[in-house]
Amino acid sequence: MRLSTKARMNRLFTRGGCLDVALDHGVCNEPGFLVGLEDMAGVVDTLVRARPDAIQMAYGQADLLQGRPEKDKPALVMRIDMGNPYNAQRHKVMWSLLQNHDDPIVGALEMDAACVVVNLFMLPDEPDLFRQCVENISKVRAACHRYGMPLMIEPLVMLPNEVRGGYQVDGNAEKIVTLVRLASEMGADIIKADPTDDPEEFHRVVEAARVPVLVRGGGKEDLKAVLAKSAALMKQGARGMVYGRNIYQHSNPKAVVNALMAMIHQGAGGEETWDIYNRG
């Protein structure tokens, strides 16, 4: 690993783990994802005070973090692609594109990001969408190597649209492990993976990745259940989480961050982190 890549990785994995709070939902073009993100400056201010390890944003919002004067503010993880698989209605043409095709990580370098993140979509009967993702990753991987930028790949296995409607994750361990292995083979430095339906199988994802694995949060759920599941996944070898709506859509995001940071960096269990959350 190049020294510049390692230096950026160290900004993310303070004390060995990472809580990355995802705020990059605007690129999904899905109104329900934006509830709680109407005042982005206020959300960023709340999170900087809560002090997670990182905040995940797209280029057009990253100035709200990187323009701040604090020396110890969270690291920036920059989303550099966008697509249309997130909408409730399946589109006739599914696509995933880099936000800057000619020079895909120039915005991340400009904003002093610690990492970039791109999707690897696996949807039923959408081979061209998968091909586009592979092309995106290939192009970004070359640029990341050139400039010493860590690459986070987000493998997403989705259910057929008719199963539950809209953007829904398939938690089948076999499918997740297979796609995570592909992400690893393509040169991921970090993998953001969906939890398996059975948390006790998540160690297989970690073993397939061979790089740090951060658990992806998905939609908002009951917080006590989220904390219990997160603790189980950490025991299976996860190095942290990338959670968005389970943080920013709660009434007290700082308390949620405190609980998750205690889990990641101090080994707190599900019940203990629930108590930490309730103490605010």
From TrEMBL:
Pfam families: DeoC (PF01791). One of its GO terms (molecular function) is fructose-bisphosphate aldolase activity. InterPro entries: Aldolase_TIM, DeoC/FbaB/LacD_aldolase, DeoC/FbaB_aldolase, FbaB-like. It comes from the Bacteria. Signal peptide: none annotated. SMART domains: DeoC. This is Deoxyribose-phosphate aldolase/phospho-2-dehydro-3-deoxyheptonate aldolase. It comes from Mesorhizobium alhagi CCNWXJ12-2.
